[in-house]
Amino acid sequence: MKLVKGFLPACIITLMVVLGCDTIDCTLNNTVVMVSNIYQDGKAVEINDTLSITNPDASVVLLNSKTDASNLKLVLSYFQPVDTLVLTITGDGYQFEDTLWIEKTSYNHFESPDCPVNMFHHITEVRSTHVFIDSVSITQPDVNFAEHENLQIHLYSSAD
Amino acid sequence: MKIFRFICILLLISLASPIVLGQNKKNNASKEKAPLLSGVGVGVDLCGLAMKGVGARFANMEVCGRVGLKEKFFPIFEIGIGDCTRYGGETTNVFSTRAPYWRIGMDYNVNKKVNGNRFLVGFRYGFSTYKYDFSAPDFKDPVYGTYAPLELEGLKGNNQWLELCVGFETRLWSIVRLGYNIRYKTRTLQSVSEMGEPYFVPGFGKNDNNAFGGTVYVTFDVGKSAHLKGGKGLFGKHKGKKEETNKEQETPPAESAPRAAKRRQN
Question: Which of A5, A115, B49, B152 falls 20 to 30 Å from B135 in CA-CA distance?
Fold first, then answer.
């Protein structure tokens, strides 16, 4: 009979345990950015001049007048198959522009109803004009939370 | 989270210990032998129905069927429907799923006496193949600033897991039994869409490597266990009772006191 008497409290405790626990586990680093590093003569370098990056199709400034830029973290569009980026280097009395086309496929990524939804990307091809950019190579095509180096932007050699 | 687990383990031990300790005192009492097939039962989980009734975020509604072997081993099969519709607390996202799940396993009755009470420890192997939906009405492109409602439907998932169960059940009246158990679940296999993991897995609960759960079962048990005081089971002879009866028959009748005195004088 004692066991039966203890039954109701046990049921209530069970219900409390089942109903009462909930946690929100969103990833702390929840921004998806494409990481690009700038190289010259095979080494990672900084651009001493001012660098700006815009997306002319969206009329958006992605990077505004950054000096000593070496590591670029840029967001990509969610629904466009190609992102067009215009890189402008402004120095003392000169200005150069190059355009970068990034072709990609995008897919949704969610973790929980409580967390913001993101879009991951897979870079398929990169093209550019060649004013000050020599070449662009893809080192890691998957753009996600990891923030690995995705692109290497090689500038023309300092000897040129 | 570790503290929560620790508290739950303590809770399990505290629930279990009075029953086990209580049994040790009574184990010296007469032991009854149950037949090999001591009964069959079907049950329904009240906990899942209650959670659905009070509008909880998710609920596992299930029924079970089991067989009793010697009143010790209880192979069990559970089938149910997991239902979840979860709205984001600080977002407008919605996750939903509704799918069946199955569990098979075995309970072992630690109670050495056949007295209608069962203290059960056991395990389950559970699996579920399901589809889930996820929607985000305010999905915004960070570059263009445009909104495009996200509707992901019919994402496929498949989970398998193991459960360790501790529980207690007692006979209410006739064939009706009431019991509860608490379960520690650990995921063994998961296959989900690369777009995202489900918030809830039918039968398992909130999707994680481990989870706690519980059931409160009303079981209709037919067999020896339902007729403890009546003696004979439906699926076999009650050995214990029969042996006791034979023993009684073998014992010679008591001699009356005057006759014994007369015999001593002779």
Answer: B49
Give the domain CATH number at A73: 2.60.40
Tell me whether residue A50 is in a domain: yes
Class of CATH domain B36-236: mainly beta
Domain containing A31: what range?
25-155
pTM of the model: 0.72
Q: Could you give the C-alpha distances from B158 to A22, B6, B79, B130, B209, in angstroms and in order?
A: 23, 29, 16, 6, 14
Contacts of A22 in chain B (CB under 8 A): 57, 206
Give a yes or no: residue A19 inside a domain: no
Q: Give percent of chain B with pLDDT exceeding 90.
A: 44
pLDDT digits (tens, 9 = 90+) for B26-48: 444 445 567 788 789 999 999 88
Q: In terms of CA atoms, which chain B residue is nearest residue A84?
A: B143
Residues of B in contact with A14 (CB under 8 A): 47, 180, 182, 214, 216
- Residue B262 tokens, joined: 């007369």
